[in-house]
Amino acid sequence: MAATKAPEISVDGRRFLRIPIRTHLLTSADDLGAVCLEAAAPHAEPGDVLFVSHKAISITQGRTRRASEVKPSRLARFLSRFVTRTPHGIGIGSPESMQCAIDDCGAARILLAAFVSALGKLVGRRGDFYRVAGPRAANIDAAGTSPVNPGLIVLAPLDPEGAAEELASRVGLPVAIVDANDLGVSILGASKGVDRDLIVRALSDNPLGQGDQMTPIGLLRQAPNIANTEAATPV
After folding, report:
1. N or C, which end of the chain is more exposed by having fewer CB within 10 Å?
2. Within a 13 Å sphere around the CA of 48, how many CA atoms are in the beta-carbon half?
3. Which 3 state secondary structure label does DSSP give 21?
4. Structural domain containing residue 194
């Protein structure tokens, strides 16, 4: 196991321990349930929640494309110029990742999203593009966002709610699938009984990290006291 951020965080007066767990470099050949059973289950305790990066779901679902193999259309090149880029990354701001959004969501939907977004900006409103295009466009990670696989475009996972339920049934823990970066956290899917608001707040500083930590999964555990927390802190 490997820690990337401070292991503890306080939420509403309760202290939680976040335990990032290292795995090998995941590919579409991996069974994520088996990976979680091998890497996380031996360290789990009753009451833990397993949180999983959405990229781990996408990669093991085969939802990736090599940027070098994507041939952007004129439409993709044109639309990508108008995407707002953030410190987190360029998203569909590259012609290649925009082409992936067009292929995955359909050209008509992407064009409608771009049109609605342009109208929204005229009145000072932002965020319309992804509201119309949907989560499949919003959760595309462009090439270059992962230092361990910089040439890979990662598409949004399919059926994250179902994926969370399946993982939970196999691992025997509640599961949350998260899209976390240094700007914020969102829950793409969760198994029954997961407190989504708690997960968002407890992972607010992105404890899995965005670098080469290779910790796509982790355990969230309420820490009853300092002694127990120190005993559980990963090395």
Report:
1. C
2. 23
3. strand
4. 8-57+158-232
